[in-house]
């Protein structure tokens, strides 16, 4: 007998194969393509094969398709789990981004699903009506399969506290150690579905990041006996293999691939062989039935994205060279900081150029440009910090760069194991200088506020998104305890509101910082 374990993860609302950069854009990814791949495997299963399908989180947030549904009547949000239910998903796991719109919205999204959501390390999830159980038991052809659900315990570091009312996140490792042996008393096969990634090299065990508890996948592989298959996500990596005896997958993001783990069992239902691979979706045709079911929504999304927001004059806010923008500043980044300062009532702000696909704004700004340039539903906070905190944050930013053979590059810590360009911030309202010839931690050689050097003990109010304000991205100098003001409106909406109050905006060059290489 064979057991095939299929998984999607981090689709982020990319139902359709498009980046939404323009109306006629087409890409080699998307849930519709993944659905075709999954249905093909399900249909091809032989009489001695069992197929289990897992949706491993970060499904309902991300793409403009998801942003659009989040603003519509609540009943429309159920479309997400209608689709996965009809695909034959057997069990689901919550990702960290499932909480971005609050628990009420999450419950609306779940309203019409036909499969259980499991989360063993989220205490209170069942009481809040967003989880069904710690695990789910499936019995097919006499084979008993247990699926244990886990979500990265780092969610409270990023998420607004009011979105997590009644919930407590426990470490994935400790939770798995508790449950896996117990599940082997109930089932022949134990699958761990973890919306989290790996904190160490899968082969050598060398740490690849600070051990914060965000990712515990390597510890699950090496410290929890009895895991027969490990499904992961969160990091958007493409991983498939047998590591430390455990078949493991992580299928990237946006539906670029479907994870497939195959277990071979003997007559006593013991696993005797295992394999793991990723099934690329690039060559699959989008599922026609699901496309027809969602076509009307997709058309409305495209019309909504083309709605005008405002006009720009002055210096261009179109980003053509992301590295130059990070090294020299850019009118687009200056403008986002200007919006943050206006909303937060401060004169210092920080923002990031989230990825190299961000193109900023053209002369006529549309909803499409806003959402493609600010793709996260971050709200805004103002933190009262010390000059020492600010300098430490800037040193973290300065560590983003490395110089190789005279060329400035992104430091490996921001690209490996996961691309994290969003963890470099550009500030407005202060004057500062990075000297990249100096060692990391000693690169901030000028820091001035209102014409005077910033002193370690002085206090400053800084506007930033709530992800950074919670310390996300390895910024421990920021913390919820330092928040003095919250603006609980997501940044995309703040941008639209700013244009409503200022229909024509003049772009200004950013000249407040310099970098020596």
TrEMBL record:
Keywords: Hydrolase, Nucleotide-binding, Signal. Residues 323-479 form the 5'-Nucleotidase C-terminal domain. Residues 3-237 form the Calcineurin-like phosphoesterase domain. Belongs to the 5'-nucleotidase family. This is Bifunctional metallophosphatase/5'-nucleotidase. It comes from Levilactobacillus angrenensis. The lineage of its organism: Bacteria, Bacillati, Bacillota, Bacilli, Lactobacillales.
């Amino acid at each position: 007998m064979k057991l095939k374990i299929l998984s999607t993860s981090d689709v982020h609302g990319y139902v359709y194969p498009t980046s939404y950069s323009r109306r006629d854009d087409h890409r080699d990814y998307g849930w519709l393509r993944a659905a075709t791949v999954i249905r093909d495997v399900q249909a091809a299963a032989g009489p001695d094969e069992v197929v289990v399908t897992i949706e491993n989180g970060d499904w309902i947030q991300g793409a403009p398709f998801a942003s659009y549904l989040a603003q519509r009547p609540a009943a429309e949000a159920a479309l997400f789990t209608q689709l996965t239910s009809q695909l034959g998903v057997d069990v689901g796991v919550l990702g960290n981004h499932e909480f971005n719109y609050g628990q009420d919205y999450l419950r609306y999204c779940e309203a019409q699903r036909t499969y259980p959501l499991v989360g063993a390390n989220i205490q209170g999830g069942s009481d809040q009506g967003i989880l069904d159980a710690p695990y789910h038991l499936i019995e097919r052809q006499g084979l008993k399969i247990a699926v244990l659900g886990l979500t990265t315990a780092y969610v409270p570091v990023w998420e607004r506290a009011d979105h997590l009312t009644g919930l407590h996140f426990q470490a994935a490792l400790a939770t798995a150690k508790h449950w896996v042996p117990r599940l082997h008393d109930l089932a022949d096969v134990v699958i761990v579905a973890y919306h989290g990634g790996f904190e160490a090299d899968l082969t050598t065990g060398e740490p690849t990041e600070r051990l914060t508890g965000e990712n515990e996948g390597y510890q699950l592989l090496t410290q929890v006996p009895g895991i027969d298959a490990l499904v992961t996500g969160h990091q958007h990596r493409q991983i498939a293999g047998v590591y430390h005896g455990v078949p493991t997958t992580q299928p990237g993001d946006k539906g670029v691939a479907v994870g497939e783990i195959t277990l071979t069992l003997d007559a006593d239902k013991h696993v005797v062989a295992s394999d793991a691979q990723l099934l690329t979706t690039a060559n699959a045709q989008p599922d026609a039935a699901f496309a027809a079911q969602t076509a009307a929504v997709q058309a409305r999304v495209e019309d909504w994205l083309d709605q005008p927001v405002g006009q720009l004059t002055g210096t261009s806010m179109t980003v053509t060279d992301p590295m130059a923008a990070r090294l020299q500043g850019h009118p687009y980044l200056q403008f986002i900081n200007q919006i943050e300062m206006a909303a937060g009532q401060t004169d210092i702000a920080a923002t990031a150029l989230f990825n190299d696909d961000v193109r900023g704004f053209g002369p006529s700004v549309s909803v499409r440009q806003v959402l493609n340039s600010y793709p996260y539903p971050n709200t805004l906070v103002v933190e009262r910090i010390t000059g020492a905190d600010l300098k430490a944050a800037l040193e973290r930013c300065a560590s983003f760069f490395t110089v190789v053979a005279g060329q400035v590059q992104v430091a490996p810590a921001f690209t490996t194991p996961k691309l994290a360009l969003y963890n470099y911030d550009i500030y407005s309202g202060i004057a500062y200088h990075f000297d990249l010839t100096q060692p990391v931690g000693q690169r901030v050689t000028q820091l001035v506020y209102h014409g005077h050097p910033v002193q370690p003990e002085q206090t400053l109010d800084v506007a930033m998104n709530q992800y950074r304000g919670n310390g996300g991205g390895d910024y421990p100098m920021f913390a919820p305890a330092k928040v003095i003001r919250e603006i609980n409106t997501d940044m995309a909406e703040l941008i639209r509101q700013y244009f409503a109050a200022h229909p024509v905006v003049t772009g200004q060059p950013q000249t407040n910082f310099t970098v020596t290489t």
